[in-house]
Write the structure tokens for this entry.
Amino acid sequence: MKKIYTCIICPRSCELEADILPDGQVSVSGNGCPRGAEWIRNELSDPKRTIASSVLVEGGEKEIVSVRLSSPVPLRMIFPIMDEIRRVSAKAPVSIGDIIIRDVLSSGADVIATSSVLAKKE
Amino acid sequence: MENRGIVVIGAGPAGLAAAVKLRRLGAEDVLVIERENETGGILRQCIHDGFGLERFGKSISGPEYAALLKSEAEELGIECLTGTSVLEISKDRTITAASPSGVVEIHAEAIIAAAGCRERSRGSIMIPGERPAGVYTAGTAQAYMNLYNRMPGRNAVILGSGDIGLIMARRLTLEGAKVSAVFELQDHPNGLERNIVQCLDDYSIPLYLSHTVTEIHGKDRIEGVTVSAVDGNLRPIEGTEKYYSCDTLILSVGLIPDNTILEKAGVEIDPSTNGAVVDEHLMTSIPGIFSAGNMLHVHDLADFASAEAEAAAENAFLYASGKLDTGRNLSVVPGEGVSHTVPGRITGHGPFTASLRVRKKERGKTVEVRQGGKILGYRFFPLVIPSQMISVDAEAAAGCENVEVIVR
């Protein structure tokens, strides 16, 4: 069975053709780099995604700090992870790269700050 | 009046990259003028990842990209006037700006205009109906959520399949809002395929092509929209109207370079891009004024805007040292199948790269840069789509005949 996918690893958006052979093997063509072939094999078994959100900051110059996952997680874990992100808050000052939640829901990915928030001046 | 070296207008992905490049080339006096109170431009509110693959070799979010650029600029001791709006540029490169300390006048040896673009709004696409609250451009909704922690609404409809609209469909969904559908007037999506997959398909948000909002309902707050299918001429088809109830309408209907300042200065503007007409050195029709990034033409990626601005920086540096070849004589025009191409002028003295967008999605096409019967450059593409900017390298043009870029 042949199926066309658009690779979402990078914005180059390669059009990949995946040929799923009767023995379950997948042969991939159209990929501009090896990551495309690896991605499609994952996509067919357990698709992975990364997300960005924001977390409340206590005592900061700004109300929120932007966060993202440090690495992709299975798509099915996105909503449970969002619930975790909503539950936490960070204390100012927050620096870019700070780990807000380590190994969130044992996914192997951390929730990390992608911007800095200074402490509010008294 | 203050006399300065090279002045960069805008501290986003293009402007900051230009300033950093200028310093690395050895330019001693580089000044950046930024309207906002912080550097970073639109990157600050683009918290999703996918930035930086080209420039930094890793996939990071917009704020991280902005922070990396900022630290490069700080290490090089680049001066940046924030909270300062350029009001006017004169032909002799005098900049008038409103700064926190009052109006300042700065004369520059060269200027790189990299002030980005604006979103098209409800007014520019003229949706009929009432004028309730709850109608936002995608960027405004993005700023509300990502900078100010405010939810634009709970039940949204999105018009237009631009990247920011797609990203906002996912963001709203993740934050608990319902996104009923995305409607696109054209018969092809406007955003990157990547965003269709991971922002819409992943969350089962339907995308209706060849559809548009034909009426907005609601008195104080939007209550719903009427959506119609459109024909091949993009006109609504009678009898296809469907009502969608919503409390929010998000518009992601295109970006246009913001060129009021350059236009006022007398710079020639390309009606197909709304950006300045530049030559292969990215110099506008006024000598010493360069333009790059989304202010020149709207890019697909911040990384590409940065790369283009670095090229502008190299040329501005040469210009300020009196070493730039500024002869301008040939026009480069979009031909069959091409909606716009940059540069719109070339000196004809050296090779150049045409950056362009095609009019429609096609397979197995060759893009040619030709002058009369002579092919100056060509490149084969297995697939061309309007939402992806492509480029073709071309050799120097001779004579005085105009150059044309075509899809065949």
Summary: The helical segments of chain B are 13-25, 62-75, 122-125, 138-146, 163-174, 193-200, 260-265, 302-320.
